[in-house]
Every structure is written in structure tokens, then in C-alpha cells.
Amino acid sequence: HSRHAPLPDSLLLRRHIYPDMATDYKKITVVTTTGDDPGDASSEGERNQLGVVNGVYVPCLLNILGVILFLRLPWAVGQAGWAGVFSMFLLGELQTVLTVLSLAAMLSNGKMQGGGSYYMISRSLGPELGGAMGILFYLSYAVGATFYAAGVGEEIQQTWFPDGGHWVLVGCTSLSLLACLLISLAGAGIFTKINVSLFVVLASSILIGGLSIMFAPPKDLEGGGRHQGFSTTLLRQNAWPAYTADKACGDGATCTYSSVFAIIFPAVTGIMEGANLSGDLKDPARDIGRGTLWAVLTAFVVYALLMLACGGSFDRATLTGNQRVLQDTCWESLVISIGVLVSTGSSCLGALFGGARILQALARDKLFPGTGWLGWGTRGADEPLRAVLVTWVISQACVFIGDLDAIAPVITSFFCMSYACTNLACLLVSVSGVPSFRPQFRLFSRLTCLAGFALNVAVMFYLNALYAGVALACMAVVFVALLYKDQETNWGDVRQALIYQLVRKYLLKLDETDRPHAKTWRPSVLLLVDDLQSPVVHFAGTIKKGGICIMGVPVVAATSDESMRASSAFVALRRTLGGFISRHGFKAFCEVAVGATGREACHNLFLCSGTGPMRPNTVIVPFYEEEEWRGGRQGEGEGGGE
């Protein structure tokens, strides 16, 4: 057009386009963590340096060898037979071992921070799924602390205050929670020292109880039934199921394999206790995997030996009718009572301690509004004191609610979902093929991850389909809420890697054709941007009709000084274009190219825009009135080449 001048040599320096772009590059700074934030107290002093035994093995084993061992294992043998219970433990331990393999692989790939399984899942599957799983996992711990504390209270009441009423039970439960609170507030160092002492007491109780079953002389039991001494005849008789009606399986309902499995399933949980202390471990990548595996295998051997001992020493009527078989058989019943107190008390302590660290990690990620203050940690050890107090308040409130048995199966489903998400995260990261996934722990494969995910989901629905549906609905509600909340996170989760794989795959397929057919042709636009408020920007977005749109800016740098300035402003310019595209919801990309002249800069822009077959086939160039262009060039000269 005769009234329009050629394309100006520089689009970057036109004042009315980007008035602050010439100086934006001066504002680019590198942000580093100085430790002044009270929520990041770990930068000063030394963190806790727990090892594999006191930081992983002992906490996991204390939770796995819980109250089920003392009160429910003999009953389960009486209902399902020792062979049936053994198969339940095989299935449950298969779940846990497959999950531990995935957990160890994920944790041995790079630096592991506090938050345990939540941190791992959120960084792999994104903030929405990670946040939904994290908050439900935390609530499971908070409510679980109440269950364990109630177990302590019931044992104290039955042993020393048998005539006490409801408020005696509430008082004993509250005192046990208070004791766990004080230990948690003392820090991870005191926690692990007490845990080791509790572990010694628990191991002694189990050993004495097992030896009593095997070698104590036959006698009538105070709670009903008779200890007949170990014999292979009883062992054969008690091998297979003989289900009876029991209130534990429902009012007047006959027990089944699934109902018995659901009752003893907590005996195969507790594998996340080491991961919850990841921020306090000296080497979490190395210690969590092997320490958890050792704990799982040790617990399996202990449970297997005890179920054989019970199956060969009592008849079915004694096993199903007397829940205090171990206490009545032991040479000193107080030993088993102490074991019950230690197992439930240590589980309560682990739930309170581990749950607080999950809450601290959630608060630091700021996924839920109003929780930022809970991310605070003490200087040096980074103890989550505020999160501990909030967790204790929730648990104490649940004490006064009353019977929590109705939601116990939902909590079991939450644990199954957590294990399933752990396997899913490892599977997707492995499938995505990202080069950064190079775990030190190699005893896993995609097949083990897939099997662990499928097995956990299947068991969750097998135990109770209704409660599994309720648990999934709860997670879906939180997931949708987080999905519609603008999450300002850049964790590099696996979704980006999977999208990249899919795009690459179909780009390569698209590139197999030499040229598109005329019927499928669509405009793919390269727009040379001179004014983001110009109607031509909206015009370009309208005519592309499913094609690509690239907003490009050619930058002129004729001298070495200008090249340095252009390189510095390059990032700021792309940030400005990207922010504009994001704010206005344009489906477009941005590109910037540099050249010694305007023609060379545009030529470079044409060459670098697009990839493979997804390249522009239409160029939109803004026109300038000659007077406007000359005025702009004169203003640039007066501005000293901003």
C-alpha cells in the first residue's frame, strides 16, 4: 500500500507498545531462601538426624504390631482358621510390599522433604490429587489417634477400674492423648528415644505371651474356655474356616472371609510411619525403603508364628468366645496388659506425630486458605508444634463425640487409597520416561506398580464397597474444590510429562503425511505484534479456526550493546506476552526472535516459529501510517534508545 511505510526495524522500542519493557530486564532478580521465614526454620541449626532403626524400622513395627495382635488375632483364627488368616496376611502383606517397593523407588529419586506420602503424591500427581489425598490422610491420622487412645483407656479401665463408667473411660482416653501430646511437643529426638523403649517392652510382651501359649501347662481360663497346650491335632482341626455369628461382624450376622479380613486389616497398615518422618531422617531416600521392608517382613513372621501357636493350643470355642486369651494364658497377665497399652499408646503417638507433619506440609504448600500459619516450625529441628496442637484438639474433640466405629471402615478406605495413589504415582512417573526419574532403589517395575495399584483398589472395595464409595466421594469433593482454585504451583508433576509424551507421539504421526489435504487445511497464524490492544490480535485469534496462533515479536540488535540489552529483555518480553495470553484466555503461543536488522529479525522469527507440521502458514503484519511510524522513530531517538 503506497500510504504505508515498510516494517520498522524495531518493534520492541515503540513506546506505546511496551512502555516499561526496555527497563523490565533490570527488575529480574534471583530469589533465594534465606531462612528468615519462620515457616522455614530448617535453614538455621541442624535438622533431626534419625537413622533407619529409630526413624523407620521401630515406628513402623510399633504400628504394625498393634492391638490386633493381642485382642483380635486369636478370634480371627477361631473364625477363619489359621490357614484362612494366613491367606489374609499374605494378601495384605502383598499389598504393603508392592506399595513399599513403589514408595522406596519414589523416595530414592532426589531429595525428600517433610510430609511423607503427601509430599511424594502431590509432587508426582499434582496439587489437586495430592491435596485431596493429603487432607484425607491427615484426618485419618487425627481420628485414628482417638481410636488408639480409646484402646489405651479401655485397657486401663478393664484392668484397674472394671466398675468405672463412661466418664472414667473418657478420662483415661483423654489422659493418654495428653501424654502423647507432651511427647510430640518435646520433638522427634524424644519421640524416637521413647519409641525404642516402647519397642523393647512390646517385643518382650509378645515373646513372653508366645512362649506362654506354647509351653504353659493346660488350664481353665478366667474369661472362659481352656488352654490345652500345643498339639498337632488341634492345629489340624483349626486349619480351615468355621464361621459363626458374632457381633463384631454385625448384629446377628454370620462372619465371612471379607468381614474377618476387614477387622484384622489394620494389622497390615502402618507402613507410612517412616515416610511421615522423612523430614527428620538423615538419609530418607536410602532408609525409608529398606527400613519399611524390614518392618513388614518382621511383623509377618511374628503374626504367622502367633497364629500357629493359637491354632495349636486352643479350641475354636475358646478362641471366639474369650477375647483375653493371651492375658489369661500368660504366666503373668499384667505383661500382656502392658503390651496392649504399649501397642495402642505407641500407635496413638505415631498417629499424632505423623499426622502433624502431614498437616505442616499441607500448610506450607498453601493449598487450603487460612492454613499458612500451621506451616511454622521451630528453629533448627523444624518441629511442627502448631500442627501438633491442632491435631490434638481434633483428636480430643472426637473423644467426646462417642462411638466412632461407624467411620472406622472409611478410615481403612482412606489408607487403601493412599497406598493406591503411591503405586499410581510411581507407575505414571515410570511410564512418562522423564530423564530425571533415576531411583537408587531398583527392586520395582511398572508391573509391580500396576499390581499394587489394582490390588489396593480391589481390596478397598472388597472389604466394604459402600464405605469405599464414600471415601472416593470425599476425595472427589476435595479434588474438585482444589481444581477450581487457582493453584500457583510449579512442581513439575507427571501430568506435564504425560502430555508431552502424547503431543510428541501424535506430532510424529502427523508429520508422516507430506502435506495436508485441501479439505483439512486451516489457517495457522503468525502475528507480528506491535500493540497488544490492537483489534488485529483478536482478529488473528478468530480466523485460526482450530489452527495454531503464534504471537511473535522481532527484536533488532545491531550492535553488541544492543545485543546484551536484547538478551536481558528477552525473558521479560516473553513473560509479558505469556501473561497477556493467560489473562485474556487466548489459545496462542508466544515467540521472540533477534536480528541485526528488522528484516533479519523477522526472517529468524519465521524460521523458529512452530515445530514439525505445526508451523504457521499465514502471516499477519500490522501496517503503519507513514506519519505515525516516523513519529515513533523520532520519539525513540529522543528517548535515548530505551
Overview of the molecule:
With 642 residues, the chain is mainly alpha-helical. The two termini are 30 Å apart. The radius of gyration is 32 Å and the shape is elongated. Strands 5-4-3-6 form a 4-stranded parallel beta sheet, sandwiched between helices. It has a two-stranded antiparallel sheet with strand order 1-2. Helices cover 61% and strands 4% of the residues. The chain has 24 helices and 6 strands.
Low-confidence stretches: 1-45, 632-642
Total helical elements: 24
Mean pLDDT: 82
How large is the radius of gyration?
32 Å
Helices and strands, in order, run as HHHHHHHHEEHHHHHHHHHHHHEHEHEHEH
Sheet bearing the most strands, described?
A: 4 strands, parallel
What oligomeric state is this? Answer: single chain
Overall 3D shape: elongated
Strand tally is 6
- Strand order in the sheet with the most strands: 5-4-3-6
**CA-CA gap between termini:** 30 Å
Strand content: under 5%
Q: Structural class from helices and strands? A: mainly alpha
Helix fraction, binned, reads 55-70%
List keywords for this structure.
642 residues, mainly alpha, 24 helices, 6 strands, 4% strand, disordered N terminus
Indicate the topology.
Elements: H1 21-24, H2 52-64, H3 67-71, H4 73-107, H5 117-125, H6 127-160, H7 166-186, H8 188-215, E1 219-220, E2 226-227, H9 232-237, H10 257-264, H11 273-276, H12 284-311, H13 316-321, H14 325-329, H15 333-365, H16 385-401, H17 408-432, H18 446-463, H19 465-483, H20 494-510, E3 525-528, H21 535-543, E4 549-556, H22 560-584, E5 589-595, H23 598-608, E6 618-620, H24 626-638
Parallel strand pairs: 3-4, 3-6, 4-5
Antiparallel strand pairs: 1-2
